[in-house]
Design brief:
Chain lengths: 258, 308, 403
Amino acid sequence: MSTLVIAKATFGEAWRKKILNIFLLAAIGLIAFSVSFAFFSPGEQMVLIKSMGLGVIAIGGTFIAIIMGITLIPAEIEKRTIYTILSKPVKRHEFLLGKFLGGVFTLLVNITLMSVVFMAMVAWKAEWHVDWALLKGILMIFFQVLMLIAVSVFCSVFATPVVNFFLSSAAYIIGSLSAVTMSLSRLPEKHPIVRGFWWLLHYLVPNFANFFTQNPLIHPEVVIKNELIYYAENILYALIYTSALLIGAILLFERREV
Amino acid sequence: MALAIKTQGYTKTYRLLMPRRLVNAVENLDLEVEEGEIYGFLGPNGAGKTTTIKMLLGLTYPTAGEAWVLGKPAGDIEVKRQVSYLPESPYFYEYMSGQEVIDFYARLFGLDSHTRQKKVEELLKTVGLYADRHKPLSQYSKGMLQRIGIAQALVNDPKLLFFDEPTSGLDPIAHSEIRDLILDLKDQGKTVFLSSHQLSDVEMVCDRISILNHGRLLKTGDLKELLAHGKVEIQAQGLDEPAIAKLRESASEIRTDNGTVLIYENAGERVDMMIDKIRAAKGRIVSVIPQRRTLEDLFIETIKEGNA
Amino acid sequence: MTRQTRITLLCLLIIMLPIIVYLQAIIDPQRAQFQPGRGVASVVTEVGSTPIVLPTQFIFGTVIGLREVVAGMLWIRANDFFHTGDYEPIIPLTRMITWLDPHQLTVYSVGAWHLAYNFVDIAERADRRYLIPGMAFLEEGIRNNPTFWDLYFEMGFTMYFNKVIDYNQAAVWLRKAQERGAPGRVQRTLAHALDKAGRVEECIAQWRYCIRDAERRLRKNPNDRDAQYDLAVSKRNLDGVLIHQEDRKDIAKRPVDIVFEAKFERLGPKRFRISGYTNLPDGARIDVTLADKGYKEPVLKEFTWEVDPRVTLLYDIGLHGMLVQNGRFERQFDLSRDPKQYPLVSPEYELALTFTPLGAPDEVLDVVGWRGEAMRAKKYLDTSIEGVRRIRKVIILKREDII
């Protein structure tokens, strides 16, 4: 199927992008470096290693998602490789989905590599006891950046890479401040229009903060109620939101001049 | 004969913001390309050639008008199985080797593994890149990339090929090879829609041509016929000045060159008339040669007329 | 794409939007569980009420989820300030750190200790006004880390045992620490608190508990040096309490008439002397408290390090009280060199001089009893605390008497 062929080619190209490789190496280096926090007690050290590791994977995933997302389609148009592809019996939505899937697979591979190093560091510090619960946090990070790359791909259909970079970054920052947008939409002393604006922002911008589930993983004594349900709801949210963004991108790309 | 391409009132208008205005990249284009012919699509830079091709391939959408490619509306997905496109200065995934990139395009047609393998090998040999098939494209020269472009354009054995400047930047030998390839394609019954600035190449291979400028079709027709409407040159010697003066009164165009008189007349009765007058004036006819226009002449003339 | 397909996709998109809103609405209330604890209200109110700007190099870290790492780095900075004696920025820093990471126990305990102990006058007397904020800070730490014994211990020992000198409350918190798996030294501290609170039977029961626990640990690991130490010390202390219990049996039947008198003398502007005499045994201590008349300790629901700059409090209590030697006690006070700590703006003050048997040395308790059971006095006998007999004289002073 054309989508998979294009996805494979996209992954092959992305995997060789120097900037992403350098960042992956830097992220892995940072995770490994986190074991040198000797100033703190062993318990506090583990907190720092987990916090640092999950944080670096999240930042790494975010960076890769944005950089990939803003260039996936515009680069093809700029370099005119899209001409030789769309002149073949490849539907536009197949092309777009293929590029998206290739980007997602690149993200998955990068996150997996960082996670393997991270889990190994944690296990080493814990005398080779693997903390499988950390995979929950990594899973949430993956779905978070899945939504983010979908945002970038959606914006790439109508915005230049530079504008898209700021759009995607802004969406990420606003979406990470869910607690703020939620609070502002509920302040009784504010004008209804102002509250309505914050309400729209809170519900329409993807809520990346939903996926910040690191705290109970870093501090296992924190008890969470209905944890599995929370994870399931968030995964569903991410999948539906991503699908909505892709549908929007397909509809816009269908009429886009290349 | 069936038509490979037909356009009616095909128009593409762009809305510019700075300053605000409408620009017609293609204006009311009526075109007919027969199957099995090599059709030259000419025009200066910015004439609208690439825009027309992109509309026919569904890469861009027309503002008005209609077009059919191999009997189906332009951009139809099934038609693309029988059509191919070699864009100007093609660009491919640099990390792929020659073999991988042809294989990639073959996969887009859903060819099975065995068929693909055979096809890739055959095409690489056809374009002379079999020995370099494992090198990444980043190490290919411009000429090699152009050959890869041709190979990807042939992967589906198309009935109609769109070639946009296929010889751009190539050395003379490569030029010749591409020309031969195009002629081979015609022999196989394929239709080639050739957009090019290389008028010498066009003159050598094309059956019919169109000339476009500022989005408007200025001239179209059989190439031989368009170039054939030239004059006849009559060379005469042994004429004295009074005789030359008398001939000057009736000749369309007359020049002298070291005692030789050169008269240019449209083919037909006037040539016979001038020959009779020269004989009557006791001159000696050295030669009578029909003059052929070059495509370059036709092109420049047409563009000038269009600008006027 | 056909028109039909386009319409279908558009309809799909329209259907997805309310689903997304619905899902978010049910996720919102659950998300708070994953936020790092109380004391870290919404970002808006916290930023609004805490006028602190995070250094720019740390802000990025908090936004992208590296809260604990940023908190750790800030703690290293705070540590530097401790070592250089630059105490001013420490409280805002500890507040920032616990805002970022409410699970840093050390920061809570050090921050609380710093508030309660380190704001001192020229005579190294701690500013009592900061005790309540210190305890509020610790309470916040306990709310955010309810399963750890450490901060309960800090509240019981550092605050109530050593600062408030309320052994009953100390025992409450130490017991909570013990219930959360605190080690032997905490168990022994609980026993001492019960001893000083005059709850002898409970004290004996606690020492026996310490012994049993140490023996249990030694059975598990005979080379456990902590358990060996705990066992030896607990046995010795239990013996001591049993001996004292025997000695002080029926002490109420051996009453002692306590003579006590004290006076206030102004020596100059904001300088005064308190002196007096008593027949309490040498080694007894007389607590001195000077406070605005009618002063009531504030109750802090949320931590703040703001204190009322108009309040004057002076507490020389417990081991800082005036020592009785040869029947006399005396001390001079100079508040003139610390106007910030002692603003002295209130028109009237309550100066209380108190002897309490709770926490007194054994040689004193051998005379008066654990809870003052043997004490009698014609003047100043105070029985306002149930089960405890104290000697207490209160002098009301006007501002002019001190200024």
